[in-house]
Amino acid sequence: MSAKILAIDTSTEMCSVALMMGNTVYTRSAIAPRDHTKKILPMVDEVLKEAGVSLQELDALAYGRGPGSFTGVRIGIGIAQGLALGADLPMIGISTLAAMAQNAYRHTGSTHVAAAIDARMSEVYWAQYQRQDDGNWQVVGQECVVAPSALTQSLANDGITWTQVGTGWAAYSDDFDQLNITCESSTILYPEAQDMVFLAKFALEQGHTVAVEESSPVYLRDTVTWKKLPGRA
Question: Is Cytoplasm tagged as a keyword (predicted)?
Fold first, then answer.
């Protein structure tokens, strides 16, 4: 399948866009923690022009669904929804944690990745990922928001060396130094759209897309808050 997919992400300090055209990926990215709204649409225009296509010619639009900065995730999904609605494209939400696992594989060949994004309030967004034979990623356990100190009590050494990705490792290094699993460091701090577009290809091939009105963020920390209260419509 020769996929044509645009991916955007503003969920962390990194602002990035990627366009997959078959086996070619066009990318733009920048560390811009306060300028996402200024940079993301010009980046989209640049990759579309470089590839010589319009939004209407694409198969799907992928976006970083979180977890990450509440504001950043909302900005990304809002812009993605606007673009997808105007071009009548299905949408694909991609985990920022899974995207960092793919980033680690792209840079180092790592097949076992432990992702931790600093979630503030002495917590991290956490997940462990294992690469599958087809190149996709399987989460080990589940994505969660957790205090690093709790991970030191719950994780057992499995004999696997896990590659560290994300901002959480440095933010809570004292706690993470106590982890009972074998880890190796990396320089990967943020998710990037060029890894999201790779993961989106698997989702598209399996028919895992949603309509614009059904696309939604994943905050993890806000799971309870978003539930309807008893007696409310």
Answer: yes
